[in-house]
Design brief:
37% of the residues lie in helices and 20% in strands. With 326 residues, it is α/β, with parallel strands linked by helices. It folds into two domains: 161 residues, Periplasmic binding protein-like II (D-Maltodextrin-Binding Protein, domain 2); 135 residues, Periplasmic binding protein-like II (D-Maltodextrin-Binding Protein, domain 2), CATH 3.40.190. Strands 1, 2, 3, 4, 5, 6, 7, 8, 9 and 10 form a ten-stranded mixed beta sheet that branches. Strand 5, helix 5 and strand 6 form a beta-alpha-beta unit. The protein is globular, with a radius of gyration of 23 Å.
């Protein structure tokens, strides 16, 4: 009987030794954005792709309110990866976020994802022709804690309108619905174009996009908010908007907590920045067409993660002094 028991134990031990172990050694959290938003498409797509293409890694996607919340979550390691605007990250690192004097020193940039231009929409029959005419109007600025809301506050303060508008903190879809129902006069978006909320609004209502760059430039945009850069939103991006719109953009960045393994960040970049990886992300969200090796550090003005710096230097990119890893 004892021999039989010993034999069973030996067989069981042999079977265990021959059975492959399938658990993940690393489990990371990727904080994205509101449901249906560009951040969430990117974070979910990247989480799925990394989980499938890096052995012993599982990345879970998390919804969030957006850029500023992601910086706070990544800083405290409630999330390992996230997406944030370069401007928010710059201000957070320098204790200049609106109403928040904390310094967020544990967040590192990983890669540029896409340009997010400011888009300020009104209905064509509103009579609003320029930014100055928003005085006293109901303006949706983005959801609370979002990068859109933070950028809207910076812009409105810059042009002297912050205390002269009826501020509504609504996400894009809710803002578009409120515009359609006549409960709003304007809505602010900071996202890659075309944005679904405006596509859907323009399908049922005649809209206009206001030129935001000229008035911002006149009020010191380049000196006061140096992470913003000018661009034109092309004509006919949205139905009924036949002209190019003078705007400015922030860079949406992939970010990480500084304590995430440098080797893991390096492997993650190596997986995403392949022909297969980039094609996958474009299928998830067409905005990913802006991603490339050549443009990998576009708009990054804060320190890179050590794993990211290693990867981008291997690709032959020059790293600016402000982006050097720490």
């Amino acid at each position: 009987m004892k021999r039989f028991t010993k034999s069973l134990i030996a067989i069981a031990a042999l079977m265990m030794a021959l059975t492959p172990v399938t658990f993940a050694k690393d489990f990371l959290k990727f904080s994205g954005g509101p449901s249906g938003g560009t951040y969430q498409y990117f974070s979910n797509g990247m989480a799925i792709y990394l989980s499938k293409n890096i052995s012993n890694l599982k990345v879970s996607n998390q919804a969030s309110r957006g850029s500023v919340e992601n910086i706070r979550k990544v800083n405290t390691k409630r999330a390992d990866f996230g997406i944030a605007y370069s401007g928010d990250l710059y201000l957070a690192r320098n204790a200049r976020l609106a109403g928040d004097k904390n310094k967020y020193m544990n967040v590192r940039a990983v890669a540029f994802l896409y340009k997010a231009p400011a888009q300020l929409a009104v209905l064509k029959d509103s009579g609003i022709m320029n930014v100055a005419q928003l005085k006293g109007k109901r303006v949706a600025l983005g959801g609370p804690g979002s990068g859109a809301a933070a950028s809207a506050e910076r812009f409105m303060r810059l042009v002297g309108l912050w205390d002269n508008i009826d501020r509504q903190f609504l996400g894009y879809s809710k803002a578009a619905s409120a515009m359609k129902d006549g409960h709003l006069d304007a809505m602010w978006i900071l996202a890659g174009y075309p944005t679904r909320a405006l596509i859907e609004l323009a399908a049922t209502q005649d809209i206009k996009l206001l030129h935001v760059y000229p008035v911002a430039a006149d009020n010191g945009l380049a000196e006061k908010l140096p992470f913003y850069q000018p661009l034109y939103i092309p004509a006919n991006t949205y139905e009924g908007v036949p002209y190019a719109t003078a705007s400015f953009f922030d860079s949406a960045l992939w970010i990480a907590n500084k304590k995430v393994s440098a080797d893991l960040v390096y492997k993650s970049l190596k997986a995403i920045y392949t022909t297969k990886g980039l094609k996958y992300l474009v299928n998830v969200k067409s905005t990913a067409k802006q991603m490339s090796i050549k443009g990998g550090v576009t708009g990054i003005v804060t320190p890179l993660h050590k794993g990211a710096e290693r990867f981008w230097k291997e690709q032959g990119l020059s790293i600016s002094k402000g982006a050097a890893a720490q």
